[in-house]
Structure formats: C-alpha cells, structure tokens
Amino acid sequence: MLKRTLTCVISAVLLVAPAGTAIAAPPGDVLQQKLEAVHAAGMPGVFAEVRHGHRTWTPTAGVIDVRTGRPVRDGLRHRVGSITKTFVATTVLQLAGEKRLRLDAPIGRYLSELVPGEEGRRVTVRMLLNHTSGIGNYTDELLATGDDLVAVGRTTYRPEQLARIGLAMPPTNAPGAGWSYSNTNYVLAGLIVEEVTGRSLESEVTRRILRPLHLRGTYFEGADPVIHGPHMHAYVPWTDGELRDFTRYNMSWAWGAGDLVSTAADLNRFYRALLTGHLLSAHLLAEMQTTVPMDAADPEAGGYGLGLYWLPTPCGRAWGHSGGTIGHQTISFHRADGNRLMTYAQSMAFYQESTEPHPIDEAAADFWITALCGEQPAAARTTTDLRPFQVDRELAVSLR
C-alpha cells in the first residue's frame, strides 16, 4: 500500500515460456516446502492459497504470534493494503459503465472544492486509477520515520485530510506525462465514488462486490484498531533488534488506498470473478487491462492499468496487485484466464537492511512463481530483482 513501503511493483524480470507451453500444477508438498523456506529465512508467519482449476492448496508456515508460538493456520484474515485499489477501481469502472461518471472527465467536475483550478481541469479519473496524475503521494509525508509509524496508528484521519496532504506536495510529473505511484490517487477516487453515489465508499464496495461474491472475510477496517476474526500478528523489526507488534492499529490513514482486511480465499475468488468477466463488461475489463509502463526504461518489466497490473513470469503475464501495511504484506497474482490463482500473505515488514534482496524476498519470489508456473530450473530465470515487495529501504534501515 505504501509507495515507500510497498510500491505495488513486484520487480521481477523472468524468462517467459513460449506461448501455449503447458504448466503442470505444483504438488502440494512442494508448495509447503517453499513456504516453509520463507519462514526459515526469517518471516514469523506466512500463509497462501493456490488454485489450479478445481484444485486448491492452502500451505501455511510459522506462527501467528511469536509470544505464544501458536502455529499459522488456513483461513486467517489479513490487512491487504493496496489490493484495496483493485476493489475501488472496479467500483469506479462499474459507475462508468452505468454512465454515472466518465473515465476521461476532469476530476474537478466531481471534486470542485477539493481540487479546483488547473489541477482539477487537467487530471482525469483515468489518471487517478493508473497513477499518471502526477499528484504527490501523501504517505511519503505521513509515514517517513519510525516515530510516524507509531503516531499514525493512534490517529484517526478523514479522507479529505489525506487528499489535501498529497495535493499540497510538489507534482511528480505533468498530468498524464508519466507513471508515479501515489496513494492520494485512490483517496480521490474514493471521494469521487461518494460524490457520484451519495453513499460511502465502504457501502458501495460492499454492495457491488463483497456481498454479491460472498466475500465474508473481507471488510473495511477504518478507525477500529482490531482485526476481527483470527489473524496473524503484524510485526516490524525495531531499533532495539526486537520485533515490535503493530497488530492493534488505526487504519483510517489508508482508506480507499489500502484499508481492506481480507482472506486468501476471498482475494482469489474476487480476482477470478474480475478476470473472467463477472464484475465488468468485456469493454470495461479491457479498459482496466490497458496499461502504462511502470518503468519507462524497461516497458517489459510490468504495466499498470486501472487498479490492476501485470508482471512477467516464466508462464506468461500474471495479473493482480500487492499490498503492504505496517507489518502485514500481501501479494495476489493470477493468470489472465482465472484458471491459476495465487494469494500469499506474510506477517512482517521493514525487515530489509540494505538494497540487496533479502533471503525472505528471494524465498517468497520462489514460492509465488512456483505457485503460478510450477517448479522452474534456476537456469531458466533471468531475474534482475527477485524481491516480491519493493520496500522503503531507507525507512527499514532507520528502524535498526
């Protein structure tokens, strides 16, 4: 969710298998071993759900709580951070399909008081959803130090406050001129949903997506600091070398950019419904999957659409999103036909000590590639960066 904690970019450049190559489903014991390798590399707790057609695996490893040593089990709830963006973008696209808003309309049409003037006239709804608006990322200001991590979790924010922080920051680029990830974009998108519908963002996402798909483990957490239902604790390595527990945390700072709690099963069900046309028409899904490069110097490294992005894998493009909060991190990626799905969740963030890939990241990348593509020989990978999460290295180091 955080741009500097997690940019929504899983930076992986992998050799792509030829089109039509059959990918065997990975055996369940292989998935279990690879998830245990993530735990062995230092992750307190980790779980996943992998689906290939009608087959489902739910490997787990590690502990829910380092104090009690209770083992991780299937079905846990988890703060999924920026994966919230796909839900919000789907809601906006549904409203576009109903002619209640236009993707290429200026945002000032809907938020004239909050975004007046040239910015309101030049930035469009589409630019919010694909992060080409150039609007600053409010979490860069809000969550810049270890002290901020503590203070933000004890504070309740209104969406308009968050939006104003980002709008007051220097622009990263001219509207539409480039890609720059900003959580402010999705706070503004959520406010547009509320303006257009006259209802809260939470109620719109619930009635349009959560309820129809029976996603009973998914909800907006808001200012309530407690995750309701069984869940892993959320950890950050702290200055004294110990793990600090951030499980109780006010998530109002995230709102439409990353406020959802969910389960691996719910996320897989959501993305399958989305990618197979059960939530959007073919035209709107094509709009969602029209992408801009996340790295202008390497367009084949991944593309961001409207709340959804693709990454290259050995078995072709994978579509989905990733999300990180203070302690919980999640990755949910899937084949475009919805036949192979993978959601992975871990219970610690900010553990990197340098710019080099951490063993946890390497093990996690090995797991999710295996989950989607089967076991890959080491020689088949031309990986330039195996990190499954692009984290804020400076902030991670400052906590030591």
Précis, in short:
The protein has one domain: DD-peptidase/beta-lactamase superfamily (Beta-lactamase, 3-Layer(aba) Sandwich), CATH 3.40.710.10.
Structure, explained:
- A hairpin with a 4-residue loop joins strand 10 and strand 11.
- Helices cover 32% and strands 15% of the residues.
- The protein has one domain: DD-peptidase/beta-lactamase superfamily (Beta-lactamase), CATH 3.40.710.10.
- The longest helix has 15 residues.
- It is globular, with a radius of gyration of 20 Å.
- By secondary structure, it is α+β, with helices and mostly antiparallel strands.
- The protein contains 14 helices and 14 strands.
Q: What is the CATH architecture term?
A: 3-Layer(aba) Sandwich
Radius of gyration: 20 Å
What string, H for helix and E for strand, traces the elements in order?
A: HEEEEHHHHHHHHEEEHEHHEEEEEEHH
Q: How many helical elements? A: 14
Mean pLDDT: 90
Number of self-contained structural domains: 1
- % residues in beta strands: 5-15%
Regions with little confidence, pLDDT below 50 for 5+ residues: 3-21, 382-388
Number of strands: 14
The CATH homologous superfamily corresponds to DD-peptidase/beta-lactamase superfamily
